[in-house]
Amino acid sequence: MDTMEKGRMLERLGFSSDDDLFSDVPNDVRTELNIGKGMSEMDAVHKIERMLSKNVTVRDMPCFMGMGAYSHYIPAAVDHITGISEFYTSYTPYQPEMSQGMLQALFEYQSVVCELTGMDAANSSMYDCSTALGEAARMCGRISKGKVFLIPGALSSERYAVLNNYLTGTGIRISTYGFDKDTGSLIPDDISSAVRRGDVCGIYTEIPNLFGCLDKNVASIKPLIGNVPLVMGVNPLCMSIVRSPGDMGADIAIGEGQPLGTRMGFGSPLLGMFACRQEHIRKMPGRIIGMTNDSDGNRAFCMTLQTREQHIRRSSATSNICTNEALTAVAAAVHVVTLGAEGMISVAKKNMERARTLMSLLSKVKGVEIVFKNTHFNEFPIRLSKDVATVNRELLKRGVMGGVPLKGHVRGMDDCMLIATTEMHSDDDHKRLVNGLREVL
Predict the structure, then answer these.
(1) Do residues 331 and 349 share a domain?
(2) Are residues 364 and 267 in the same domain?
(3) Residue-by-residue pLDDT tens, the chain, 441 positions
(4) Residue 275 shares a structural domain with residue 416
(5) CA atoms of 369 and 374, how far apart (whole Å)
(6) Hey, which bits of 284-376 come out as E strands?
């Protein structure tokens, strides 16, 4: 921008200088932006493409990171349907007469979540599993009068941090229960002891857990805790081959829906799944889509139970969530419907098979120890004889993205890495990881 043009703009705004324009901004927070001269659209595109070419994706090299975000095959129908402009640009619909397509799609999503979790009702999504956990803990506080929320001692630090933020100011404290050092499974006695001490408002568990274990002890929790609400976190893909949370006595089910229809995307847009039993539905946060009849008796869809929400009850609302992940929720519904029951089961079994195959290969590598003797879904921890961060850097040089370091997530496991594998990994991908670890260790 030349000086004359800048002067005309300031004059039109009624200012004589830059300092006058920014007089309301304190000097100590002002920042000079040296963005350089402008460039043509073509030059800008070329510069951005050069910058983007430095990125490395799961298409460029095999990635064995998991802990909530996974690389799965997404049927072409998912991108095609979610790319329809009416879906792609839609926000939460407040005008049902104008938004029947989106409302129906979200209603179908809710139906899919209920089918997978064995719950009676689901909302039309939340931001991610971490925020869903935070909301579930607060919901337990509304259902029960206790002030302690029990969580696994093995929980991702990010999930713990979000939960802690959500409980700030509620008076609810976080307490943990342990896991068996040989199997990675939860210890039921830890939970029953905490409940006997009293003041527990809710208990959270995961299947698969942080270690990818399909923990058989989860099914034994509900008989131990009586009326204390049980929250169960799930991988929705895994739910096609294991007992549902509803079948195991859970009151609330949450999950990370990213494995259904959403790419990893450098951190990815995520999808928080949230469902509960019928008796708790009025205490559940988030948007709910209902099915009804219009004035002519035809089937119609609408927003329901809105009296719980911020735009009506303000500070007395059930929660402070103001939106939902509509597009990723539609993608998840399309993904599940496209695969069908048999397809979901087939993909889930394939994931378990890939994990067993990779575990067997890694168990033969000197310097690698399989940590737990248990049944895993598609991820598992390994203990390394060298520093995990160093190993990952060396693997990256060899064209392999290693697992997630457990340092900072689980006490006493600083020398461990969590390996995830899916149907997207070929035998050659497994060999690249195994050979890379042999070289590095």
Answers:
(1) no
(2) no
(3) 678 898 999 999 999 998 899 899 998 888 878 888 889 999 999 999 999 999 888 888 999 999 999 999 999 999 999 999 888 876 667 677 778 999 999 999 999 999 999 999 999 999 999 999 999 999 999 999 899 999 999 999 999 999 999 999 999 999 999 999 999 999 999 999 999 998 999 999 999 999 999 999 999 999 999 999 999 999 999 999 999 999 999 999 999 999 999 999 877 789 999 999 999 999 999 889 999 998 899 999 988 887 677 667 777 777 777 677 899 999 999 999 999 999 999 999 999 999 999 999 999 999 999 999 999 999 999 999 999 999 999 999 999 999 999 999 999 999 999 999 999 999 999 999 999 999 999
(4) no
(5) 14
(6) 288-293, 299-304, 368-370
Q: What share of the chain is helix, strand, coil (3-state, %, to 5)?
A: 45, 15, 40
In a domain, 225, yes or no: yes
Strand, coil or helix: 312? helix
What pTM value is reported for the model? Answer: 0.90
Looking at the structure, do residues 203 and 236 belong to the same domain, yes or no? yes
With respect to residue 165, please indicate whether it lies within any of the assigned structural domains.
yes
The answer to whether residues 287 and 420 belong to one domain is no
- 373 belongs to a structural domain: yes
Instruction: Evaluate whether residue 37 is within a structural domain.
Output: no
In angstroms, what CA-CA distances link 398 with 288, 422, 429, 433, 438? 48, 20, 12, 9, 12
Which of 303, 335, 367 is a domain's end point? 335
Host domain of residue 414: 340-440
Q: How far is CA 127 from the centre of its chain?
A: 8
